[in-house]
Amino acid sequence: MQLFTPDLQRWLDLAGIFVFAISGALLAVRKNFDVIGIAVLAFATGLGGGIFRDLVIGAVPPAAFRDLGYFLTPLLTSVLVIFLHPQVERINRAVQIFDAAGLGFFCVVGTIKAHEYGLGSFAAAALGVATAAGGGVVRDVLANEVPLLLRWDREIYAVPAMVGAGSVALLLHYDAFGDLTMALCVLLAFGLRLAALHYGWRAPRAWHRRSATAEGDGGRER
Amino acid sequence: MQLFTPDLQRWLDLAGIFVFAISGALLAVRKNFDVIGIAVLAFATGLGGGIFRDLVIGAVPPAAFRDLGYFLTPLLTSVLVIFLHPQVERINRAVQIFDAAGLGFFCVVGTIKAHEYGLGSFAAAALGVATAAGGGVVRDVLANEVPLLLRWDREIYAVPAMVGAGSVALLLHYDAFGDLTMALCVLLAFGLRLAALHYGWRAPRAWHRRSATAEGDGGRER
Amino acid sequence: MQLFTPDLQRWLDLAGIFVFAISGALLAVRKNFDVIGIAVLAFATGLGGGIFRDLVIGAVPPAAFRDLGYFLTPLLTSVLVIFLHPQVERINRAVQIFDAAGLGFFCVVGTIKAHEYGLGSFAAAALGVATAAGGGVVRDVLANEVPLLLRWDREIYAVPAMVGAGSVALLLHYDAFGDLTMALCVLLAFGLRLAALHYGWRAPRAWHRRSATAEGDGGRER
User: Fold this and answer.
1) Of A189, A33, A148, A15, nearest to A94 (Cα)?
2) Picking from A139-153, B46-60, C208-222, which range would have the lowest pLDDT averaged per residue?
3) How far apart, in whole angstroms, are the C-alpha atoms of residue C41 and residue C47?
4) Under 8 Å between Cβ of C107 and C164
5) How far is CA C119 from CA C126, C130, C169, in A?
6) Are A130 and B36 within 8 A, CB to CB?
7) The pLDDT value given to residue B175
8) C62: left (phi > 0), else alpha (psi -120 to 50), else beta?
9) Chain B neighbors (3+ CB pairs < 8 Å)
10) Which segments cross the bilayer (chains A, B, C) (predicted)?
11) Are B222 and C144 within 8 A, CB to CB?
């Protein structure tokens, strides 16, 4: 099954890797890493989620090591950010919108690929979320930061991916998938992420925790 | 070969994942992460060690992605901790005892599974230890903490797992395994960990290091 | 294809693991970890790069779990460093030279192994670099430090590996490999790393970044 034509899908794939790689390269610039560090974070962020998914489902070598485009995209992204990072920072809003699009696209194709390799609905959806959000976790771990995904003071990132991947898993389970329904799942995750950014939606913390922080706890946090 | 009946083994497996997931979810609450962060750490701690073992021995997709119970256990654990974390913290002693049981159980089943996939005695025992202790390392790395496993100021955790996994490897090597001897290995690791907790056993540091720290070094440590 | 006789290659392999494991064990001593932490970092640094490569190309179980020598080398290194770390620190210069030799050797054998498993030139070279530099990244992530590989204030480490791995990939592509050319690739990476250490070569940072740091930025850096 194909969400889109193979050609279109590949271009969307590369576009998603591109925007993820930008977020990795920009973090490396902010952390004052050298050009090697910028390239490493661009690769890890752009390809990390997909490599994890492919290792888990046994699709080795992962797609990232078989298609030259997957390799050149983070490389070119690094070069771009190395020379133009002030300009890229300035269009950060646009980058976030593309990142939301990448999130929507990757949670859907990740779920589909895991399903094609025989995983059940829940496992496929979980891997879809890992495909979309995993690169960012690898990026933050390498940069020695608490992953944004885990922090309460950021707009929700995993929830849109979960909704998108979960919808795909449901559609696959009921044999109701098709080009249109799949595209709707991408748009659903994309739209939710945009809305979260626009309205500042955050996930709640543990029960009883809200009052505690008002009193200034979080001492173990950096 | 089976340590216990498949049904009993599965329940022990899920119980082990449950207590490991609790330790992940509680750390997330202490670090003030949101509910997504709590769930991510519960999954990573409960399933991380087993996923690593399965990737290394080539058992893909890992068990965690094939059995729905493996998926639902950390999910339910997260919900439990989100609403009842003060109560769970209060029975922390009980949690530690269950965690010790999980340690004993996982180091044994991890070694057996690796052996079944054809690994040698040393490699199988090493993977048994990784199964038991790996989830905690993933938890601490994701939470941006120095892994407890590496710290000198904590009761030994890896040593009981090494003794348990090593005993299993020896028994397998001499064809002397069976339900009884295997259960004894679980109890051995479990008992050692409990004794370590009770008597405050710690692993030594490098030679000449004790005096050095008395003079207040460790400046690079956080 | 063989770079050297199998026997010689295995000894070089073990020598490389030995020097990488030393760097892991020494970091653990400096961070005041206990003997378990020292052994864990020795294993992770010595074997991490090769395990990652083998998982990606589907060579499971990884070599590190099949050859007892790969297992005993980091173990013996740990024991050595635990008792003799002041002496090992004192010959740090010699350790760095051996580490450079390990870097040269691993980037070449990593590229060759990936090529043998059917990867393209770029992917094989990338895995060669990951084999050589991956262990150090795992070491720093586990020790909760910013990976040295990413930092601008260290002599280049990845670049010599890239040059070595890239040369191998080129030679393989043009069917021009052989014992002599391969040995030259090892020497090339080795020599570049030694020169980088001797002359203090560093990789540049992002454009416009030099002046910024002169004004004392890098506030987000630790």
Assistant:
1) A15
2) C208-222
3) 10
4) yes
5) 10, 14, 10
6) no
7) 87
8) beta
9) A, C
10) 12-29, 36-56, 68-85, 121-142, 180-201
11) yes
Our CA dihedral for C66, C67, C70, C72, rounded to 10 degrees, sits at 110
| Pair A160, A103: CB distance under 8 Å | yes
Q: What is the pLDDT of residues A128-143, one digit of tens each?
A: 999 999 999 999 999 9
Task: Work out the minimum CA distance from A108 to partner chain B, whole angstroms.
Answer: 18
Name the residue among A168, A95, A94 with its Cα closest to residue A131.
Answer: A168
Chain C contacts of B152, Cβ < 8 Å? 32-34, 37
Nearest to A165 by CA among A91, A96, A109, A98: A109
Check whether C210 has a pLDDT greater than 70. no
Sort out which chain C residues have CB atoms less than 8 A from A38's CB and list them: 206
pLDDT over 70 at C115, yes or no: yes
The pLDDT score that the predictor gives to residue A4 is 61
Integer Cα distance of A9 and B155 in angstroms: 52
Q: Which tokens go with C210? A: 């030099």
Q: Which of B29, B34, B53 to mutate to test the interface with A (most CBs of A within 10 A)?
A: B34
Regarding pTM above 0.80, the answer is yes
Tokens coding A156: 């929700």
In the predicted model, what is the mean pLDDT of chain A? 88
DSSP state of B119: -
Of C59, C66, C46, C148, the residue nearest C106 (C-alpha): C46
At C153, give phi and psi (nearest 5°): -90, 25
Contacts of B60 in chain A (CB under 8 A): 55-58
CA gap A105, A185 in Å, rounded: 9
What ipTM was predicted for this assembly?
A: 0.88
Whole-Å CA distances, C124 to B80, C14, C57, C113, C117:
46, 22, 10, 8, 9
The residue that leads in pLDDT, A222 or A46, is A46
A95-to-A88, A155, A194, B33, C54 alpha-carbon distances in Å = 8, 15, 12, 25, 35
Structure tokens at C49: 């790069």
